[in-house]
Design brief:
Elements lengths: L4 E5 L6 E8 L2 E5 L2 E9 L3 E6 L4 E4 L4 H5 L5 E8 H12 L2 E4 L8 E7 L3 H12 L2 E5 L2 E5 L6
Parallel strand pairs: 8-11
Antiparallel strand pairs: 1-2, 2-5, 3-4, 5-6, 7-9, 10-11
């Protein structure tokens, strides 16, 4: 569609497809049902279609956070660490683990250029007050216990 700008995110192991529209309109159809429109998205709208065909719509989303990767940036707006880790693992081809699973729910608003994994890890570590331990292709985020 001419004049339409949008971002599609769907990875092999994911069970969903996400579309964010920057400009124009996009219609989302169900798999195997081209005649059925599940969602129609306008500017600043985000639609997600799950593996079971369920559709959700969010309006007035921060489009820049979803399209930052096109400018070699990763950007997150109040995203859980689990989502940040997922994107960083894909971008940098690295495995990231947490020593404490409660960290995965921590929410971050952060952006960084994607040139250096070390710089990105430093930014995340600073925001979360964690240490980064790298061993080969694995990164571990560790929160130190408070000293008494």
């Amino acid at each position: 569609d001419l004049g339409t700008e949008f971002n599609v995110r769907s990875y092999g192991p994911d069970d969903r497809m996400e579309v964010v529209v920057a400009a124009g309109r996009v219609a989302l159809h169900g798999a195997g049902r081209p005649d059925t429109v599940l969602l129609t998205l306008g500017p600043r709208a985000r639609g997600v279609i799950g593996a079971q065909g369920d559709a959700t719509l969010a309006l007035d989303v921060p489009v820049e956070a979803y399209t930052a990767w096109m400018r070699r940036r990763l950007a997150f707006d109040d995203a859980p660490l689990s989502s940040v880790i997922e994107q960083m693992e894909r971008w940098y081809a690295v495995d990231i683990e947490t020593a404490d699973s409660s960290l995965l729910g921590e929410r971050l608003t952060i952006s960084f250029t994607t040139e250096s994994l070390d710089e990105a890890l430093r930014a995340v570590a600073l925001v979360l007050d964690v240490r980064v331990i790298r061993t080969g292709g694995t990164v571990r985020l560790v929160r130190d216990l408070p000293q008494h």
